[in-house]
């Protein structure tokens, strides 16, 4: 009860302050009246009585203030007052407040955004059961520097049965599948997986069941798991979807399970999973076909290192039993490292850049507050002399800086929320798991605390000094004390640091910009404009090579007849898209390789007629495929310039005979009796098409006319040179495909220009971020510099006034002031240059066509920074030179 | 903030206020006058300490205030003892007796 009344009273003090104040005033007035009346009764005149009464009472305001103190609830009341003061004092300096808030918002926002992304990709565990125990296994050629490769089905079976360090292990391969459901065929991304996959991942279907081990046997494999998205979308969340039949590549499958919404393996695009099973005699089920990814769950007592030893043992067994096998070694990589992949470098660079940005933002805040603290010395001194206690002043400054910091943090949170949204939308495919990134409150807290702590620290340090100053001194002129000289040096050092950091970021952005320019200048080897492309996947089960090529001949004929189409062709691999199909190569006119290691490999494409004409790939030598090159006729091949350089340096490849395979005697045991690879005559050399991406040099490649090939690629890409929009053309092509085979469709409709753009998306992304950070850093450094110079000018008004009065010209004053601004800028730039030489080592792998120590970039950045420094100093300098001397002299 | 005109020992003002309020509720001026009368004009209460002391006692819950009409017919704020205030008065009186007794003993011994 007492506590309640106490609380009610306290509450009233806060909520109904004016009433409490009014009561106090009334009470004191009543007291004075009573006193005066008593004195009047004693014989004094009314006027004299009032005067005496007032005199006896003492300072009314002092009594009131003491009354407020003793009434309690004072702390709350003061906080309210401090808040009001804080907001008022921030409002009366809109320039300072805007700059400080913008600085905090940019620093906190950018840092929170990038930290959140890095946290998800690098640190957050993968969304599987005990993800740290998941590893991937890759086939290698046994050399230490070997590129990891996918594995062949027989090699996977060796691992599946022989591994001692895995609790479970599975293989999978992704494939586009023509899925027919509800009377409509669409192409979806799917995966063929060994039945153990879900056990390896520790995942269970949300409805239905996982695959049974027996369903990995051919014939029992017509069962499918579908994604939650597919169930929601195409199947309309049909509760009876389990047990329903769908067609996948024209075969009927039964849906046995629906995966939970969050399940994404191997990536988010994957919509369905079917058992990996091979028909008897399936050619892909051999040691020469390596296309399986292997994922294993470590046994409880195993580690990555132990698993590596285990895999080495198995690979050594394979290599000794099958000397010609691709698998000569194996490498084990933790799944998380595999997922991070090459995005690691980019992320660490962004992390570094944004940390520098946060640092520069804090430095700027420090600088602004130091300057402001000095300016406020007079105000603080005045308030001290009016009786404000030091604690009270400190508390008010604290509240003020806290308000500033919190407002900045709030703005930063908004910035980060928007930034994360934008990033997850524009982020390149190289960055995995971007869709999992959310604004993380813990991270926001850390960056916000950094910002708020900076503002409090640097808001209070000058205040600490100020409140200790004897009021009279500060009021007279506190500027020319040694403390202020020290503070000026501190501010110059801070500005120099800002300039140095800005320079590092500018150099980084500059190098990335030059690299991007260099990549864009790379000739892709084909003319991208006006090219539309899409893919057609014919099921191998129904199409042998002859039928497949007949289909494509007919299709291309129809496509060429579509309105707006100039040329059309087909290819097994699209440039800049990756997706390696390699072949080994041997030469008839030189000694055969003595071992498999010495047989070179090159890229291989199967193309239609007019492919080079359609793509705009220049013929350098010899001839294109001609009508005389036919199935059953003499097989021919065309190589690219990289192949010509690599295999026939200084000689002419035209007319040479090659075959795409190793010398037969090296793998005789695996070939049918008396088998010989077809001998091909090289008839032409074409320009290099960039296969992987623009910044990877072209690799040797060989092209064969599809009619002369008996192997069938799983997918063929149409390339169509046409005027008109891609979708219209795709509609025409789709109709043509349906007319030829009603169960077929086209997918991956895009333009080659888009393919080129996509292949540079990663660079564009890192460049935009770095450039953004660098621009912000430059602006912040300029603001910091301007602040120091403007403050210096304000301090030296009298001196400058005297100089002008004594005849100094405006330009000499400008020079004097600008020199002051340049001193920290030059020092910072020198420091930044040295630091950049080290810092750019981190981004060497991201550079293209430009060395990390690129004189042009460094020079341009220095000139830019110094120009900004001069610009920033010039404004206050000109103002100083225009001050009428008398005004300047009177100012103090 | 100590008032130079207050001759009262720290803490004794609270005791005096509580004591004067044992008979009847009084307003601020009345309390000052009553203390003056009871002490035969020896103790003078400075207003600089009276009102802060009243607010402090109110905050502690020993007295409570209500607006009423003074004998002169004017609106005035009257203070009265709460039960907690009565208990406090007993305790403080006891404390004061001990203290003044001890003081006297010391002074007589000298």
SSE blueprint:
The complex is a heterodimer of chains A (892) and B (110).
Chain A: H1 2-15, H2 17-41, H3 46-57, H4 60-70, H5 74-91, H6 94-123, E1 134-140, H7 153-162, E2 166-181, E3 184-193, H8 197-201, E4 207-208, E5 223-226, H9 228-232, E6 245-248, E7 251-258, E8 272-275, E9 293-298, H10 304-321, E10 329-334, H11 335-340, H12 343-375, H13 377-385, H14 390-426, H15 441-468, H16 471-477, H17 482-521, E11 531-536, H18 545-560, E12 565-571, E13 582-584, E14 586-587, E15 601-607, H19 611-615, E16 619-622, E17 636-640, H20 641-647, E18 657-659, E19 680-686, E20 701-705, E21 716-722, H21 726-740, E22 747-751, H22 752-759, H23 761-795, H24 797-805, H25 810-839, H26 855-882, H27 885-890
Parallel strand pairs in A: 3-8, 5-7, 15-20, 17-19
Antiparallel strand pairs in A: 1-9, 1-10, 2-3, 2-6, 2-9, 4-7, 5-8, 6-7, 11-21, 11-22, 12-21, 13-15, 14-18, 16-19, 17-20, 18-19
Helix pairs in contact in A: 2-3, 5-14, 6-12, 6-14, 6-15, 6-23, 7-10, 12-15, 12-17, 12-23, 13-16, 14-15, 17-23, 17-25, 17-26, 18-21, 23-25, 23-26, 25-26
Chain B: H1 12-20, E1 26-27, H2 28-38, H3 47-60, E2 63-69, E3 75-81, H4 83-109
Antiparallel strand pairs in B: 1-3, 2-3
Helix pairs in contact in B: 1-4
Features:
heterodimer, A: 892 residues, alpha+beta, 8-stranded mixed sheet, 27 helices, 14% strand, B: 110 residues, Arc Repressor Mutant, subunit A, 15% strand, globular
Short description:
Chain A contains 27 helices and 22 strands. Chain A is of the alpha+beta class and 892 residues long. Chain B has one domain: Winged helix-like DNA-binding domain superfamily/Winged helix DNA-binding domain (Arc Repressor Mutant, subunit A, Orthogonal Bundle), CATH 1.10.10.10.
